[in-house]
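Bit of a strange request maybe. I'm writing a small parser for structure token strings and I need a real example to test against, not something I typed by hand. Could someone generate the tokens for this chain?
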Amino acid sequence: MARIDSLRKHCAKQCLDLVIHQALVQTERSPDVQDAFSRLLAAVCSRTGLLHPMPPGGRLSWTQPASVVRGLLALAQWHMVWLRDVGTWEPTGSCVLRQFGSLARHLLCTHPVPRFMDRVWFSGRSKEAGRRQKWFRHVGLVGGIRGTDIPVRLTKTMAQHFMRAPDHYTVEAALRWGQILDFGGDAALVDAVVATRLGRSFSHERYWERILRFFVHNAGLLLPHVGAIVEYLDFHKLIFRLEPPLPEKRKTILELLDRVAEWQSPRLADSQIPKLKWHNAGIGNFECQEYLGRSRGVRIWTIRELLDSNALAAEGKVMRHCVGNYGNWCFKRVSSIWSMMCHSRSGQEHVLTIEIDPTTRTIVQAKGKQNSPPSPEARRIMLKWAATKHLAVADGV
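Reply from user aminoacidic:
Good idea to test on real output. This should exercise your parser:
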């Protein structure tokens, strides 16, 4: 057992040495940065245990010290604006994040910086990581986040909430914390929102700001459904032309939740382990957009291949026909089943189920709900798809 522990320690040290070597190689063309990195490395090694292999779960690991090395490399990039010499740094705190944060504050700050911002130094050297590190330095110099190029509109009160966000948050989550608390929301709503894409992305921010206010005003009804609603609105934002209908009355809110549940149900079915799965037929899914005028917005037609028995069962249940029994045929590549849907402001609709013979690439069946024939519009879209993918259409379809 002692020999195994010794081997693990040796392997962890070798991996860490490789990470340090790679960092030195990356800075070869910037001698000043390399010198700053070397000084940081020497200070950390002599005064802390940050670069010692950590024992999570009883086993030595080099991954956390490797993150510290990458953080030191990021700090070295800012050596031109260091306020103090690294040699005068005295580490504080017992955990890795606290000690590393004390180093960053020693070098760059004159004002307190929230502890959640320490994580920006472990995000690498990308453009976005550098942007967040710039926010850290700004807060450390002026004592607040306002005045930086943050992607949200923060009032003075929002900025104050941001500075008091929980330590375990990311910077992005802390920005949402400031927004939602200023709108009148609470911590439970913030946690629900930051668990979605809104906790990572700020694209189309004015659109999503309206959604956040909507969540705050109707939190009693919507809190358990925040994740599903965000997915639904993100998928449909082109249809809504970035102006989503946000109902305020209880009845219309419940109607929205029904539409979200209907849209989500095939995905929930897909999340269960299917009995059968098969490869796609090599034809390719299809999407077609139609502009219906200023008042009606955009309508999107989609045709996608169903690739497991769960998807077939969901399609058969919605369309009320027997396609759910086609699993063995699809698995044996005798048949390929496709679902046509129409997405618009009024919601999404399952329009047509299409069967293709994958050997001859021929559409052999196309059925609407309860085996009804295709409507003229559905047939038009199907023929457009067939022309695009060079599919034949059997007589009588």
